[in-house]
Amino acid sequence: MAEEKSIKIKIPKLDIWRILTIVFAVIILAQIFGLLNLTGLLGLPNTLSSQKVGEKVVDYINQNLVQPGTKASLISVTDKGSFYQVITSYQGQQIPVYASKDGSYLFLQAFDMTETKTTQPTQQTQEPQQEVPKTDRPEARVFIMSYCPYGLQFLKAYIPVMELLGNKADLYVNFVDYAMHGDKEIEENTRMYCIQKEQRDKFTSYLRCFVQSGNASSCIAEAKIDKSKLDACMQATDKQYNITGLAQDRSKWLGNFPPYPIDSELNEKYGVQGSPTFVLNGVTISVSRAPESIKQAICSAFKVQPSECSQKLSATTESPGIGPMGSGSGSGSGGRC
User: Fold this and answer.
1) Alpha-carbon distance 154 to 144, whole Å?
2) Which of 31, 33, 133, 321 could form a disulfide with 38 if both were Cys (CB 3.0 to 4.6 A apart)?
3) Does the predicted TM-score (pTM) go above 0.90?
């Protein structure tokens, strides 16, 4: 019988780690070039691009959260690791919101739970306000920038008080000595200054229109402002204070912003540091941006209160930015430009 012969086949030893390395490398490359949905393969939610999530957030806000006839817009999206921070703009105010990376969930506020709290929130650290002296005819001044959303918020609350007490107290609108919102703010500051100075009986009518629409041209017509007189005043004021010249000479700027010098002496006198700043009988005070709160503050500065002080105004805090008066949420009086 023929002798049986066995054939031996040598099988190389497998290096499992090397094989896994190669497999994962292929998967990652496929994911990079769009050939394989790795998140789907592993059962994880899809991560959308920051731009796509930002667009989804703004679309959702405009369809569900804002007042009819108004719109929010997208400013920026920042990757925060496990979520996106989306900065939106609404009625002149920048508002941060937060979204999951798959674009499924929107959060209006985020809390950093890794942050260690070193102080107890139960104690007020704010210093008490200085007492306002009483006078026969109180003087109130609010310093604003005409396009600062928080200055506009204060104006919305201040206008009804000006209309109510304007014959019994001296109530003024003044201007912060720099402009943060471009040439349009410089022009509007000067326009308000001139209407208040030369056509004061029409000033609150103009303000009431402007804070709600932001359309100076139509508000001039609505308030029946003498436009020729206004234009002449604005030209003379620009020349007197060299407003345009200072805005064009960056060497004169206060940091990143051009000076606006009309009320610079009053700014220095009262230590004005932003819009709005409220000064009553020479004392800078904080007050809720609701008509009733401002009225009560001014009425408390009379030696003898006039009968108008018994009239109740809205106690609801106005909304920041250009928009309807009386549409506020009742909270948020701390913002400043």
Assistant:
1) 9
2) 31
3) no
115-147 core/surface letters (b: 16 or more CB in 10 A; e: else): eeeeeeeeeeeeeeeeebeeeeebebbbbbbbb
| Domain at 62, CATH number | 3.10.450.520
How many separate helices (H) and strands (E) can be counted in the chain? 11, 8
Tell me, yes or no, whether 19 and 67 share the same domain.
no
Count CB atoms within 10 A of the CB of residue 28.
Answer: 12
Same domain? For 146 and 263 the reply is: yes
Residues 6+ apart with CB under 8 A from 213: 219, 322
> Are residues 194 and 293 both part of a single domain?
yes
What residues are paired with 89 via a beta bridge? 73, 94
Q: Do 277 and 190 share a structural domain? A: yes
| Residue 298, CA distances (Å) to 139, 158, 169, 301, 305 in order | 8, 11, 8, 5, 10
Please tell me the distance from the alpha carbon of residue 4 to that of residue 269, in angstroms, as a whole number. Answer: 115
Whether omega for the bond prior to residue 128 falls within 30 degrees of 0, making it cis, is no
Domain extent at residue 271: 139-310
Please state the domain count of the chain.
3
Per-residue pLDDT tens, the chain, 337 aa: give them. 444 544 444 444 444 445 444 544 444 444 444 444 444 444 545 788 878 888 888 788 878 775 666 677 776 677 777 788 887 866 555 677 788 888 888 776 665 555 444 333 333 344 455 788 999 999 999 999 999 999 999 999 999 999 999 899 999 999 999 999 999 999 999 999 999 999 999 999 999 999 999 999 999 999 999 999 999 999 999 999 999 999 999 998 888 899 999 999 999 999 998 999 999 999 999 999 999 999 999 999 999 999 999 999 999 999 999 999 988 775 666 788 8
